[in-house]
Specification:
alpha/beta, D-Maltodextrin-Binding Protein, domain 2, 2 domains, six-stranded mixed β-sheet, globular
Length: 356
């Protein structure tokens, strides 16, 4: 057997210690919760945006779980944009204005170039279980740890966002060539993929997408599956919906201020880690419930559902998967970031996770 790199040994050890439950979601159900955990009184201010919805189910879980397990001593206050907008939260966390926050790297890719590997289009992430394992492994790579440490941040867990789909107005793009010249809200690697189809991608904050579509600033918008289109009500100003384009997803992790994490009492760290498996389950449950609600709603609104053929999707992957990955690796290596090693980690972890 080839000798493992030091960081790989450390990663495996940390995974085993920090919560195999979070990495075995298909096996484990809700974790057994501890009795009351003694500790100091503290309240974490947690950044988020939008409103309570499936993508923050893990935050809402911890908001309930932590005080239950500590007799009310450890509490969370989730500020839905009251603590700052989605593009500001990383900076606010860095200076200690927040104890924790959710972010999306695609909102500020220049600040976290290594982490944007998880935003690449057409990564082999067929479900939330595989995605969680890939993200958790990626979070432990030294280059990623170092990158976030530069922002005084400790990665805690993934949001395992579903594959993105588009809603739009006007002529439905029943052929991939119909995206030529279309103005689309598509961030991160999804924007890179859509550019390969001749679309014109633009970055718009999630909370501004509805208005941008309503005013005709963009012709179409991508969001995770149906849940976000339902949450932000983009379907109300749309005439069509893609049900299987699935060009990729975005990495929108929960972060903890590094100074806060390092000073956190050990029993509170353990409590947070013990809750991760259940937090992931709540995310999965939220996305499934959103699909059950929103698909009939979209049909009731008479949206045209667009389903592409396997041949069309294969052609899309041919022009927007490996070529985009190669460009990303080249750009990261030029920055002194081990891009190939990071991409290989994603692909090898996904392959192993899919077979387990």
């Amino acid at each position: 057997m080839a000798k493992r790199k030091h960081w790989e040994v450390v990663m495996l050890g940390r995974i085993a210690i920090a919560g195999a439950g979070a990495l075995a979601l298909t096996v484990l159900g809700p974790v057994a919760l501890a009795q009351t955990v003694d500790g100091p009184k503290m309240n974490w201010r947690v950044g988020a945006w939008g409103k309570p919805r499936a993508a923050v189910a893990h935050l809402e879980f911890y908001k309930k779980y932590l005080p239950e397990q500590t007799g009310g001593n450890f509490t969370l206050t989730i500020g839905y944009e009251s603590f700052g907008g989605p593009k500001e939260l990383l900076d606010i966390l860095k200076v200690g204005g927040l104890e924790a926050t959710q972010i999306c790297s695609a909102y500020h890719p220049d600040k976290q170039p290594a982490y944007t590997g998880l935003d690449l289009p057409f990564l082999p992430l067929p479900n939330a279980d595989v995605q969680a394992k890939v993200h958790e492994a990626y979070h432990l790579h030294p280059a990623i740890v170092k990158e976030f440490a530069g922002w005084n941040a400790q990665l805690f867990m993934s949001t395992v966002l579903p594959q993105y789909e588009f809603v739009g107005r006007g002529k439905p793009p029943k052929a991939l060539s119909d995206y030529q010249g279309m103005r689309v809200r598509a961030i991160g690697g999804i924007g890179d993929a859509m550019k390969r189809l001749g679309a014109v991608p633009t970055s718009v904050d999630a909370t501004e997408v509805y208005t941008s579509m309503e005013r005709g600033v963009v012709d179409a918008a991508s969001f995770p599956s149906t849940y976000a289109h339902g949450s932000y009500k983009t379907y109300e100003v749309a005439t069509w919906f893609t049900e299987n384009l699935s060009p990729g997803t975005q990495a929108c992790p929960m972060l903890v201020n590094l100074d806060v994490w390092n000073k956190l009492p050990p029993q509170y760290k353990k409590l947070l880690l013990d809750g991760k498996a259940q937090a992931y389950q709540e995310l999965k449950k939220g996305y499934a419930e959103a699909d059950e609600k929103n698909i009939p709603l979209f049909k009731k609104k008479n949206l045209t559902f667009i389903k592409y053929t396997d041949a069309e999707l294969a052609e899309f992957r041919k022009i927007a998967a490996q070529p985009v990955w190669d460009e990303w690796v080249k750009a990261r290596e030029a920055q002194g970031i081990p891009g190939k090693e990071l991409l290989d980690l994603i692909l090898s972890t996904a392959k192993q996770a899919a077979t387990n």
